Amino acid sequence: EEVEEYRTELEGIKVRGKGCPKPIKTWAHCGCSKKVMDSLKKHGYEKPTPIQAQAIPAVMSGRDMIGIAKTGSGKTLAFILPMFRHILDQPELDEDDGPIAVIMTPTRELAMQICSECKKFTKSLLLKAVCVYGGTGISEQIAELKRGCEIIVCTPGRMIDMLAANNGKVTNMRRCTYVVLDEADRMFDMGFEPQVMKIMDSIRPDRQTVMFSATFPRQMEALARKILNKPIEVQVGGRSV
Ligand code: ADP
Ligand code: MG
Asked: Ranges for the DEAD-box RNA helicase Q domain (predicted)?
């Protein structure tokens, strides 16, 4: 009951699905490592926004999630902070250098923005994030991927090309266990569903999958059911515009 009151106080957070952990009030109990906490402080992120307050503990608990909140509400940190924890929890496998986490987003600009947000944290964590998007030559991106990385931020079309490039020798999804679909509504408005599904099919089914969107129209529900496993739904503000 107390938890419900706090969720309401945080701009009306609504939660659907069983077993959602309670929201966090500060970064103190967010489950991030010391290095991540230092970077949060350094970049002036004083406390979690409402979507971060509820989505971070939900995703940190290992559950699939659908996060719905308007543009500018801080959705990026809500999926990259649990991503760092997920990556740092994986055993080191030196024979594989494909990504542990893949973030899909509809446009090149968004991919670049998310990648630069990741880079605020990856340096001190000794992790590498690579941005993969179309509308520009593929060879430089291939060269970067061949050097290995833990995180790929991509647009779906170019990611498909990348998986097929050099007979599949550029990168692979064998150790990928954390997947984000960001701006999922726009991704489907732009007709990327077939590409997204193809990429999903190349990723192990025991992955953790999270989907973020400003709106959650009915048409997206069928798709969410196909790619998410017993998701928690976290919503701040209205469900669809
Ligand atoms: P969304 O994806 O929901 O549109 P973003 O993740 O792009 O939102 O964040 C919007 C802006 O808010 C960015 O400039 C980001 O740096 C800032 N921001 C995110 N989280 C916080 C926070 N906890 N405290 C202060 N600023 C934040
Ligand atoms: Mg965003």
From this structure: 25-53
Question: Which tens digit of pLDDT belongs to each residue from 37-70?
Answer: 999 999 999 999 999 999 999 999 999 999 999 9
Q: Are 134 and 110 in contact (CB under 8 A)?
A: no
Contacts of residue 136, defined as CB under 8 A and 6 or more positions apart, other chains included, come to 108
Q: How far is the CA of 75 from the centre of ligand 2 (A)?
A: 5
CA distance 152 to 119: 12
SS3 (DSSP) at 33: coil
The predicted pLDDT at position 63 comes to 98
Q: What atom in ligand 1 is closest to the CA of residue 117?
A: 16
User: What is the average pLDDT across 119-124?
Assistant: 98
Q: Is the CB of 45 under 6 A from ligand 1?
A: yes
Neighbours of ion ligand 2 (CB under 5 A): 75
Q: Which tokens is 219 given?
A: 């048409």
ipTM: 0.99
**Bridge partners of residue 208, in order along the sequence:** 178
With a cut of 60, say whether residue 240 has pLDDT above it: no
